[in-house]
């Protein structure tokens, strides 16, 4: 009965709601229409993307058989995976440290950790280039610009984002729950594993996704820290785009988009299953 006795909205409120929905819809179209066009033209049977000449999947086959492109994608996925793992560990530890403990110059430490978020990427790229070039090993060899240098650079600018997400989640945590667990005989590790970790699990998943995405599509910092023998997917796509935007580039980009969306969907599904199991 309550459904049929719903109070009608005033004309002004209806117009405001309609305007807001239209504005959000227009923004969504503006943001995602280029991605949709890119995916559509990846099936274009033409070497140029201006005119549609027919449907084909040959550019996906061509991209799959491009050994350099596959190697670049493998490098990007490897770097993103390593960066995500280390950023998740470092970011979570930093968030818990700043949230739980009081120590001298805490505000300064908090500000320093936020620097990679604030500083422009071009500045970070130049800084990493100078830093890795200046490192001298016992054999007087300069740090090799390979996957390790790129991974360290990606961890440096990714883990503050994880810290930010985890800290926002910790702000709503009731510390009395952890104290109650300790009063019942739980150790520090047991209290962290059984009380604190389940609470911050959604933030860990969100932070991991954020770190993975930031590392996977980064171009500027990677461009400055990659050596001549190491190339990642964004750098490879940039080198291909310098000549022309072909359907092969669109096909490779579409594969990356589908991969990212699939991983995000799996993570969100996993998070939803966890939330349902915890509620029961």
Total beta-strand segments: 0
Low confidence ranges: none
Helices, by number, come to 12
**Percent helix among the residues?**
over 70%
Shape category: globular
Helix and strand pattern: HHHHHHHHHHHH
Distance separating the two termini: 30 Å
Major pleated sheet: none
Q: Report the average pLDDT across residues.
A: 80
Strand content: under 5%
Radius of gyration: 24 Å
Characterise this structure.
With 280 residues, the protein is mostly helical. Helices cover 74% and strands 0% of the residues. The chain contains twelve helices and no strands. The protein has helices at 11-41, 58-64, 67-100, 106-113, 115-118, 121-134, 147-170, 175-183, 188-216, 220-225, 233-241, 247-279. Helix 7 crosses helix 9 (188-216). It is globular and about 70 Å long. It starts with 10 loop residues before the first helix and ends with a helix. The model has no long low-confidence stretch (mean pLDDT 80).
